[in-house]
Amino acid sequence: MNTSFKAPVLAVDNVVKRFGKTIVVNGLSLDIRENEFSRCSVRPAAARPRCCG
């Protein structure tokens, strides 16, 4: 038995994200444990600043 196992401080299970009828995330699951760092950051093209003129 692994005694160094730590329960997650954040657990996400089977996340689904939709924009209207479009599924953009389907079944995302992750565990983040103490002293771990996770980052998932993507700016979609529609959210990026645009130049005018």
Protein architecture, described:
By secondary structure, the protein is mostly beta strands. The protein has a domain at 1-34. It has no helices and 2 strands. It has strands at residues 10-19, 22-32. The protein has a two-stranded antiparallel ribbon with strand order 1-2. The protein is elongated, with a radius of gyration of 17 Å. The N and C termini lie far apart (64 Å). The mean pLDDT is 77.
Shape: elongated
How does the major sheet shape up? 2 strands, antiparallel
Distance between the termini: 64 Å
Uncertain spans, ≥5 residues at pLDDT below 50? Answer: none
Structural class assignment:
mainly beta
How much helical structure, as a percent, in the residues? under 10%
What string gives the helices and strands in order? EE
By DSSP, the count of extended strands is 2
Compute the number of helices. Answer: 0
Percent strand equals 35-45%
- Summed over residues and divided by their number, the pLDDT gives a mean of 77
For the biggest β-sheet, the strand order reads 1-2
Alpha carbon gyration radius:
17 Å
What labels describe this entry?
53 residues, 40% strand, elongated
Summarize the SSE layout with pairings.
Elements: E1 10-19, E2 22-32
Antiparallel strand pairs: 1-2
Give a short synopsis of this structure.
This protein has 53 residues and is an all-beta fold.
